[in-house]
Amino acid sequence: MRKPTLNTVRVAGLALVVLVLLVATAARSADNFLDTIMGSEEGGLAASGSPAYPQTGPGDEGLQMKVDAAKVAAAQAAYVQAYSTYINLVTQGTGTSAAIEQALTAYLKAYRDYVAAVEGAANQEADERQTCSDNKTLLTNKVIEYNLSHAAMMDVLDQSKLGVSVSCPAGGVYSGTNLTASGTIVCTLHDADHATKICEEYKMAISAKVEAYNATHTVMMDTLDMKELGLSLVCPLNWVYVGTCLTGSGTVLCTGHDTEVAKERCAANRALITERVIEYNKTNAEMMDVLDLAKLGLFLACPFNGTYSGTSLTGSGTIRCSIHAP
Description:
It contains 8 helices and 6 strands, in the order H-H-H-H-E-E-H-H-E-E-H-H-E-E.
């Protein structure tokens, strides 16, 4: 057998280097393509090692598309493994030409499968969003028809009365409030940001009404009373508005959007009550064993209308809230 010359080895080596560079360039181009599909700022794979799922369109910036995460992750793992196998064969010099070619083919196929998985997820999300939009249009038209033909108009969405039964293909739930006025049909999944914005506007309107009421009435409103204000606003996602301590530092809250805010304020209230009980028991011979807010000079209430209580306060008892710390 003829022994390879030095020049032959150099040419073969150079060809191999060129091949690796071409593959790397193709990979970078594919990565850039994935960036466009996946909405990733850092490119390729997310920092966590899993795909950065594409974002939805304007108006729903905080919502990530619903994808088959397991399918995308499996395609990514196969691609990474195929790439590792190919690079090891090339850099360690342990593979034959046939093995290297086979590994390269497997690597490129795995990458194409990965791109296809992400593209498929994006197409699925787009189809679901369009179907959801069509459903909301149908419901809106049905509500308009119903309200034109019924004396008791529909203000809160009720599909059973409309004779239809549609649902969001991505798992969202349809709701609608204030439909006899400016309310709209929303999806809890696709319209979350829009519903939050409307909810904030409603809370501002209610707060303005409370302020105007308290400025013109001797007996001011401390606990929100929508009927007294002449309002019938309801959160677009069908949650209700509450408000306590409105003559002081209290604010109008939504029972859905403001759950964490209410929880934090309630915890702060309980901490303050606990502090006042300790002070009271240090300065009074007859200590407080059962909570009495009036004796403490406090007129606090849970933001969600829960009631505060406390027993065995001279011992190990704690301040409780009927909603947040029952």
